[in-house]
Design a protein that fits this description.
The protein contains 12 helices and 3 strands, in the order βαααβααααβααααα. It is mostly helical and 313 residues long. Strands 2-1-3 form a 3-stranded mixed β-sheet.
Amino acid sequence: MNRQGMPPEDNLTEVVEFVLLGFADIPHLQWFLFGLFLIIYVIILMSNGTIFLITKMDPALQSPMYFFLANFSFLEICYVSATLPRMLMNLGTQRRTISLGACAAQMCFVLIFGAAECFLLAVMAYDRYMAICNPLQYPLVMNHRVCIQLVTGSCTIGIPVQIGQMYQIFSLPFCGSKQINHFFCDISPILKLACGDTFVNEMLVYTVAVLFGMVPFLLILGSYSKIISIILKLPSATGQAKAFSTCSSHLMVVMLFFGSGIITYLRPNTRHSEGTDKVLSLFYTILTPMFNPLIYSLRNKDVIMALRKLLYK
């Protein structure tokens, strides 16, 4: 942890902009990466947008599960749009500077959308728990009003905390290097550029990561442990297979998203490797939003049927 004393006031230089290095260490691959990430961004927009569209238009997809899926797809678009457009601009123009305000805004949006996704995934796990473990009470408990409240709560619960965390980080004095060895303004590389003692900020990062990462993850594990115990009691193998198929796609998303995110934010600071952080960040900010629609659509017959009806119109 950074416990260095504050440098003399004369040596402090007010930082008004940062430099996002991104993938500057591999200059010969800049245009290849630009093309690759542009294709990924288009895939994310089109696939998540299609899921959002068909879940709103198709009468067969008006259950709570698809209501949550539609909102999750919309969140994925917002989440990836907080990082990828800036990264594409940096790769295309080779102008990697970002103002202090833009950097703070980017971090804030990434944290807010990330927290919203964590809680919405927990809500989706609870929805599957109610559908499988309490099917008779499911229509009553998971009515439309409750679904709206759960989505609204998931999207707003992290806003004041993440804004407060962003404000506290960017209230620190910055001196020396302005280079951020990352492709977006993430917490760890920003704190490395701060002067003075960042112990309180680092403890806050761990606390928020536990509250907004580990707590939803444990709730998801709790829901699925009960789901699996119920599934194993089903008399027929066909029934077990059908029940597992409705949950396996959600579990795959959870493992991809939470696995990379928790490792990134809950690792001891002394073990942080900037290269490893960038790779892990690619998983939860870019690759997971790309795989999610494929996982849901390829493993869900209702979504496939709705997509076919949309294409054949």
